[in-house]
Amino acid sequence: MLRSFIPVSPESHFPIQNLPYGVFSTPEDQHPRVGVAIGEFVLDLAVLEQAGHLKTKHIFNHPNLNSFMALGREVWHETRITLQSLLSADNPILRDNSELQKQVLHPMSAVTMHLPATIGDYTDFYSSKEHATNIGSMIRSKENPLMPNWVHIPIAYHGRASSVVISGTEIRRPNGQTIAEGADKPAFGPSRNMDFELEMGFFVGPGNPLGSPIPIEKTEEHIFGLVLINDWSARDIQKWEYQPLGPFLSKNLATSISPWVVTLEALEPFRCENPSQDPTPLPYLQSSGPASYDIKLEVMLQTEQMKSPATIARSNFRHMYWTMRQQLTHHTVNGCNMRPGDLLGSGTISGPTPDSYGSLMELTWRGTNPLTMPSGEKRTYLEDGDTLALTGWCEGDGYRVGFGEVTGKLLPAHN
Q: What amino acid positions are annotated as catalytic residues?
């Protein structure tokens, strides 16, 4: 097994088999630039590139990954192979050069992470059949939970790119219009039903010209990598506003993402079969071979009275009914042009059992079955001061390929 000269524990999310990309700055140099995670360190690609150790030119000394994303799979692969070689235990170039190590290796605990890309557009899908069935059962009926189009088409809405924020950003409870049961008119005030949504998302690499769809067999040439997403949701605001055009203010208040982008190449050993689809999708949505990934996911909640977080849900990315291939193909089938750095969210990821549901609305079944925390507190929806942490990883033979965490604390609404 490939090993780095930098010690990495088997539980670390960032071994040499991963090398996810992110954007960071240091107290000594506050200019954001591109790095990769290795163990408990960040490797500064801007310095490596300037010193001539990478074949790219003027790509990594930027405050985003967009330029690198645009270069495509061949360059991504070549850069990955070069970085694995430089970090390997049997390569002396970096291993035996203590001066270069001082310049390019920064303790992860000492850096500040930034959004990995300048996100031009953000689209959020609704692609977990278990989640859609649960929500449909609550809102419509258990006998007819899914709308007729759901099994034929990847459903999505266009989100708000400006409110996508990096992990650790505090989230303000939103104000908005809600309507009480039996009321004939709405009231204005803080949302009472704040929720999280366990999601993953992928960044687009090379885009496509306006009017030229991306065929499904070419989609993975356009997918750079994946991140964790917590798509905060104000359920009571959503209930009042979502008909007839769908979510608006209930969803664009904030979307938190993890700082490290894990590439498709790093995830390749964990590729797995996606759920069978019935009825068979239309031809443009059909592809051969496994199209999902075995990514274990966990949700942790910590109240202000708790000393440590408690796990409230465990799920897996492999449960997604509509795949990333299908999402990207459908998004462009009408000729919509994608651009480097565009973000596409999976939608809430729920599994088949109650402990694998990806939102509080499902975990508490719309508030009728509250969660009891280790502190004895009850939760139906999020309270002010609650902190959410989402994490995910793939389990290899003696190593993990992980995403780190995406965290966020809920603050009180503005008066």
A: 131
